[in-house]
Amino acid sequence: MRLLKLQFSTATGDRREWADYIDDLRDQAETLIDGTPSLVRYAQGVFEKAWQQGLRAAEKSFARHGEKVFLPKECPYTLAQVLDHDFFPE
C-alpha cells in the first residue's frame, strides 16, 4: 500500500516519512526472511496475497482522503523491487 500511495497520491508536501516507513517495512521483511529461510519458497504466493490486501487498503485510504486515482489491478512492482532498499517508484 505504501508504494502505491507514494507513486499515485495526488497529495502535495513532504513524502520523506512515507519513504522512511517503507524502509522500516523492508527491514522487518528482511529480518523475517533471514530468521526463517524456508519462507523464501513461499515468498511469491505471500507477495501475491499481500498485493491484493495492499491494493484494497490503498483504495480505501485514497477514498477516505478524497483522492480520485486510478490504481493498477496488476502489481506494477516485482517482489525484488518491493524488497530493494534503493527502489522507490517515480
Structural commentary:
The protein has 90 residues and is mainly alpha-helical. It has one domain (15-83). The chain contains four helices and no strands. It has helices at 2-8, 16-35, 43-64, 79-83. The longest helix has 22 residues, at 43-64. 6% of the residues are buried. The mean pLDDT is 92.
Key structural traits:
90 residues; 4 helices; mainly alpha; single chain
Brief summary:
With 90 residues, the chain is mainly alpha-helical. The chain has four helices and no strands. Helices cover 60% and strands 0% of the residues.
Total number of domains? 1
The residue fraction in helices comes out at: 55-70%
Name the helix and strand elements from N-terminus to C-terminus, one letter apiece: HHHH
Spatial separation of the terminal alpha carbons: 15 Å
Rg, alpha carbons: 14 Å
Structural class: mainly alpha
User: If helices are DSSP runs of H or I spanning 4 or more residues, what is the number of helices?
Assistant: 4
Largest sheet: none
Beta-sheet strand percentage?
A: under 5%
Morphology call? globular
Strand tally = 0
- What is the residue-mean pLDDT, rounded to a whole number? 92
> Residue ranges: pLDDT <50 for 5 or more in a row?
none
